[in-house]
Design goal:
Number of domains: 1
CATH class: Alpha Beta
Radius of gyration: 19 Å
Bound molecules: coproporphyrinogen III
Structural class: alpha/beta
């Protein structure tokens, strides 16, 4: 399996490829389903959710499926009410601002609270031939939605709590870390072949603040996950300057965006880490020749060592074209097979 081999930094005959947000509004079939069901309603219907998860594998020929869900899904059963607002993202009813708000968060039994997530994984495993990636949001990125109350540009409330009430913030990070470990283990037991932890907004932190307030929690999470057979991936946006901090993380793969080159990313993380990334999704709108040339550059650097997974630097956006993604997938496979099987 090229995807799992690459996660473990083992040689394979081609560079595996999948796309963050490969299931979503750029697909006519997804838009059709969304006419009748909200995002969370899809997640609650295992048969439908498994279908949405599988669709991009059949349509694009990617090397992995990713569970269709949202990072906010497990936050609900901790006691936080939220909605996913079209075109905006998660919006929380009562943002967490005080010690009492954080103290009130509680654990849950995933089999009781989120049985549909586990059933979706089981169904996908029965029908899809490629590995399935489970996922969770990282504590900082989840906390940013829970504290701000919605998407944010500057994370002022989140940082105010981190600086002003570091023990309250640490308590929140601890509760979320415990949830992430528990939730991802349950996904692996249900059949997930790999897990990705999305720390999308960690890049808003200075290396020093990351080291003090976030790193110990991420160390704990990836230490726990390293005991599982399934490899783990850690992804964030704008993390170029944080990569040296990731050296000590026992994740198998570090995912990066386009603001750092694959070669530079490799030099900054541990020798043991595989790399995933990092095409700017905006290039999906460029003429195909331009897109291809950029993909070739990324692949050339990626193939300098075993342990590379081709992906975008962030998610597919709604106006992307399915045909472009299909041709890109084909190009990644052909370009890498030609080089990896001739040497
Ligand atoms: O195909 C896949 O990648 C799996 C599905 C997936 C979704 N959300 C479905 C979704 C995954 C992996 C996520 C993770 C997620 N959710 C992250 C981390 C990844 C990242 O993009 O940084 C974050 C930050 C969220 C929070 C969130 N949920 C945002 C910012 C938005 C976008 C708002 C918008 O409308 O553009 C959502 C909504 C969401 N989650 C959509 C999808 C397909 C789009 C809205 C919809 O279909 O209604």
């Amino acid at each position: 399996m090229p995807f799992l081999d690459a996660c473990r930094s083992q040689k394979s005959t081609r560079v595996p490829v999948w796309y963050m947000r490969q299931a979503g509004r750029y697909q006519p079939e997804y838009r059709e389903i969304r006419k009748n069901y909200s995002l969370l309603e899809i997640c609650e219907r295992p048969e439908l959710c498994a279908q949405v998860t599988s669709l991009p594998v059949a349509q694009l020929g990617v090397d992995a499926a990713i569970l269709f869900s949202d990072i906010m899904v497990p936050v609900g059963p901790m006691g936080v009410n939220f909605e996913i607002v079209e075109g905006r993202g998660p919006v929380v009813e009562h943002p967490l601002r005080t010690r009492q708000d954080v103290d009130a968060l509680h654990g849950f039994d995933v089999h009781e609270a989120l049985p549909h997530v586990l059933e979706t994984i089981e169904r996908v495993k029965d029908t899809v031939a490629v590995p399935l990636i489970g996922f969770a949001g990282a504590p900082f990125t989840l906390a940013s939605y829970m504290i701000e109350g919605g998407p944010s540009r500057d994370y002022l409330h989140t940082k105010a709590m981190m600086y002003g009430e570091p023990d309250v913030f640490a308590n929140l990070m601890e509760k979320l870390s415990e949830m992430v470990i528990y939730y991802l283990r349950a996904q692996i037991t249900a059949g997930a072949d790999a897990v990705q932890v999305f720390d999308s907004w960690a890049g808003s932190l200075s290396p020093k603040d990351y080291e003090t307030h976030i790193l110990p929690h991420m160390q704990r999470i990836f230490h726990a996950l390293s005991e599982e057979e399934a490899p783990s991936i850690y992804f964030g946006v704008g993390t170029g300057e944080l990569l040296p901090q990731f050296k000590t993380l026992k994740a198998n793969v570090i995912g990066v965006d386009w603001r750092v080159s694959i070669r530079a990313a490799r030099e900054r993380v541990s020798q043991a880490h595989a790399i995933q990334g990092n095409l700017d999704p905006a290039l999906l709108l460029a003429p195909f020749d331009v897109l291809k040339a950029r993909a070739a550059e990324i692949l050339t650097e990626g193939m300098e060592k075993p342990g590379f997974i081709f992906n975008l630097g962030h998610g597919v956006f709604p106006t992307a074209s399915m045909d472009t993604l299909r041709r890109l997938t084909e190009f990644v496979h052909e370009f890498s097979e030609a080089r990896l099987t001739s040497s």
